[in-house]
Design goal:
single chain, mainly alpha, about 70% helix
Amino acid sequence: MKDRANESAPVASPRVPGVLIAGITALISGVSVFVNSYGVRDISSPAAYTTAKNLVATVVLGAVCWTGRSLRRQRNTSAPVNFVTRPPGAPAARMGALEWLGLAYVGVIGGGLAFVLFFDGLAQSEPASAAFWRDTLVIWVALLAVVLLRERIQWWNIAAIGMLIAGEVVVSGGVGHLAANRGELYVVASSVLWAGEVVVARRLLTRLAPATLSLIRMGVGAAALLVYLTATGAFGVLASFTSHQLGWALATGLLLGGYVATWMTALSRARALDVTSVLASSALITWLLQLTAGTATFGISSLGLALIALGAGLVAVGAFRSMRSLSPDAPAVTR
């Protein structure tokens, strides 16, 4: 299949490194978690709330894609153009069955089922426990990336993962509150499914534009969530949103669109393990906003957040050094 909407075009060089874009994604994620903590309180069905956000994000991503395609006709080299442009050297051959299966996984599983499992698990778990299991994503990505993507784990990757996990343990108040109940198992399952999506997306992004995968993830995922709402009888909640609730969906959907766009772009330029490690620093952004709002205070959790920041920083430094050692004069893109 020829991806006419995302044909290769001249792109400014050097491009922004993937780990730096992952830092922007972490910033958006941290803000999004903070905003969502307020928005989700106004809607009785977390699944309906998630579906509304996904629909808004799909529209936002569609608008960015339209802008990028329009600018590309003018030989522009801005971020929207890079977003809709396939990677240099992408194969022109038709997609095979495994790649179509990968697209289905990203849309139905990553953009749909994993969200359902996470929010159902969140409703049945303690917040601290759910947050801890959600943040084990970096472990699952590390395991899958080594086996399936052949990514090498450097010493700084091991040290960074250790800091990130230790930081999460401190922030969540230790591991004594963890329990193998249904809710926590759902959260673990969602993290594993999202880790699989990271690996699949990283592979697909060697031939597809970030925009293509972003739209598939959010569009197909939103459709899957609509089916879920209908099957569970919760569609009425979505259809009866008030203007206030629609406002929350619009705000959080805009953030989600920015998150997915920058996340896919980062994955197209850097290793899956490095991108996921940097994303863990979003917890620090959320805490700073909570501190400003007066809902968080300095305490033992500050030590955990410092460890998370150090771990993410170590990944960024290590990734930059690796790129320089491979090719000092080449664009900052990791394949």
